Amino acid sequence: MSVFSWTYQFVLGGLVCVYSPKALYDYAVKGKYRKSLGQRFGKGIAEQKNPEKPLIWLHAASMGETKAIAKLAKQIQQNHPNYALLISSITETGHEESLRSIPTADYHIYLPLDFSPCIKPLLQKFRPELILLSETEVWWNFLRLAKEQGAKIGIVNGKVSDRSNSRLSLLPKIGQKLYSPVDLCCAQTMEYGARFQSLGVPRVLITGNTKFDIPSVSTSQLLPNGFDWIIIGSTHPGEEEALVPQILTLTKLFPKLRIAVVPRHPERFDTIERYLSTLECKIQRYSKGVSGDYQILLVDAMGILAQIYSQAKIAIVGGSFVPGIGGHNIVEPCLASTPVLFGPYMDGQKEMLALVKKMEAGKQLPSENIAKEIKMLLDAPEKLANIEKNCLKLAQENQGATERTYQAIKPWLNSHDR
User: Fold this and answer.
1) Does any domain span residue 20?
2) Which residues are catalytic?
């Protein structure tokens, strides 16, 4: 093993030690990682179902990345049935999303910690011919060992955030070493493409953002009809307190207005219910049914946010009203022709931010101005309808990244086609 590999494992071990106390607390108190703990150490992963088939390994760390590559995964399976498909995740919400959106994959697993003893037996078991990584996920031991086995490695829907780029630019040789196993990157934008080129990726194509190709949601209604739903999606700690009370005041002015709160992480459901119970309103948990007389619906279910956005009058996307998160997918409501509001902390989604602003499909504003903006839009139905048209135009003009990505990787897949 090289000096770089030893150093990498030493640094990774240090990070694991630093974060272990919080992880243990989350495990014991919040119930996180209980489904995934064994697989994080390479244990309890199912045996191969079809060992004679060549295997494609598609890695998407979390829920958003998984949604973004689901259509690509299905296209690969449909056009290349002689391959087996493995989907790996890091977060439990990402794993659940892979089961929902890519149910026909041969394997759904958690990616083990990137220590050689954890990841090497798994690679020896599955021996992937092609590994596709969604967005920014680069793990040195995983890629190095796969490359030694002869795997081709590509990045799809690739991006390098400003924060990551700043860190990598401080130690450019380390960044180039980390990315040295990568053969191809299909990048979202020209800016990201240039960053991948500076990291030494030999072939970089600008294919666009596959999040614009997330399939249309079902037309079935999950929320009661006849109401003006304000959906507050993907919320993090502090955002419910900043947003819900002021929007709740609007229910006195607009009797048909209802609020649905959709937290980002399921371990927060009970905490949020306790908070909402302190407000002067009637609340309901989605898991207990959606009928009844209430002002706030706590959506304690995963994987249905896109469908709920389609019923919204206005959507608010969380992760953007408190610092340190960087925002979430503000295009997702636009794909359902739903106007979107979001906060000032969008540093992790700057390309989506620029596009939504350019197309006038939504608005960025501080949390304290949210109720005022909603009232203005509800009082001006013509303006709201124009924003809905802008959302539809945004969605239509930015599709096609999945097909371009598929065409880029297709030559790697033809060798086993019959």
Assistant:
1) no
2) 65
Whether residue 88 is found in the same domain as residue 116: yes
Residue 88: what are its φ and ψ, rounded to 5°? -115, 150
Q: pLDDT per residue over 354-379, tens digit each?
A: 999 999 999 999 999 999 999 999 99
Cα–Cα distance for residue pair 283/230, rounded to 1 Å: 14
Contacts of 235 (CB under 8 A, 6+ apart): 243, 261, 262, 263, 264, 272, 318, 319
Report the residue count for the chain: 418
Same domain, 106 and 232: no
Q: What is the domain extent for residue 309?
A: 228-397
Whether pTM > 0.70 for this model: the answer is: yes
Rounded distance between C-alpha atoms, residue 309 and residue 231, angstroms: 7
- How confident is the model over 155-170, as pLDDT tens digits? 999 999 888 898 888 8
Q: Give CA–CA dist 342/20, Å, rounded.
A: 33
Domain count for the chain: 2
Spatial separation of the C-alpha atoms in residues 320 and 16, rounded to whole Å:
28
DSSP state of 275: H
Contact 31, 23 (CB under 8 A): no
Percentage helix, strand, coil, to 5, in the chain? 50, 15, 35
Does residue 190 sit in the same domain as residue 266? Answer: no
Number of Cβ within 10 Å of residue 227's Cβ equals: 17
Q: From CA 259, how far away is CA 88, in angstroms rounded? A: 34
